[in-house]
Structures are given as structure tokens and as C-alpha cells.
Design brief:
This protein is mostly helical. The protein has a domain at 5-53. 59% of the residues lie in helices and 0% in strands. It contains four helices and no strands. The chain has helices at residues 5-19, 23-32, 37-54, 79-87. The chain is rod-shaped.
Length: 88
């Protein structure tokens, strides 16, 4: 095997994952092209490690504080109380 053989397979896997192919379909395609299962698994592991290293770091989520606010309740006046306030 030439040097960088596993890296070339890993690059192939990363490129095609970015295109939307599933990992299982890529494994089957590589097996049909007479690549050994061991080299496919090594390349898959390498591709996962490289993709994980390129992924952005997740920031810690902010703390959400809850504050209970009592609602302002307006006193409802009856029709007769409203009428009385209009007359006065």
C-alpha cells in the first residue's frame, strides 16, 4: 500500500459525507471496489477524528433566570357603578 493510502480513503469519505452520502453506502461502495474492510474502518475512524477536530467548539449555554411577576388586576366596575361615575 502506498503511503497516505488511509488518508486518501479518509478524504474520500469526508468529501462524500459532505455531499450527503451515508456512511453505510460509502462502506459498501468501497468494499465493491475491493478495498479491505480493515482499511475502510481505519479510514472511517480517521475521517471521524478529523471531522471532530474541525467542528466548532460548543459554547456553554447561558443561564436563564425566571422572575415571577404578579399580574396587575384592575377592579371591574359594574354597569351601575360606571353609570354613577358618569353622572357625578
Amino acid at each position: 500500500m502506498p503511503e497516505g493510502y488511509i488518508q486518501q480513503l479518509a478524504d474520500y469519505i469526508k468529501r462524500n459525507l459532505a455531499k450527503g452520502y451515508t456512511l453505510d453506502s460509502l462502506r459498501i461502495a468501497l468494499e465493491n471496489q475491493d478495498y479491505s474492510k480493515i482499511s475502510i474502518e481505519q479510514a472511517t475512524g480517521l475521517a471521524h477524528k478529523q471531522l471532530a477536530a474541525e467542528a466548532p467548539k460548543i459554547q456553554e449555554k447561558p443561564v436563564i433566570k425566571y422572575q415571577v411577576v404578579s399580574p396587575v388586576v384592575e377592579e371591574k366596575k359594574s354597569f351601575w357603578q360606571k353609570l354613577k361615575s358618569w353622572i357625578e
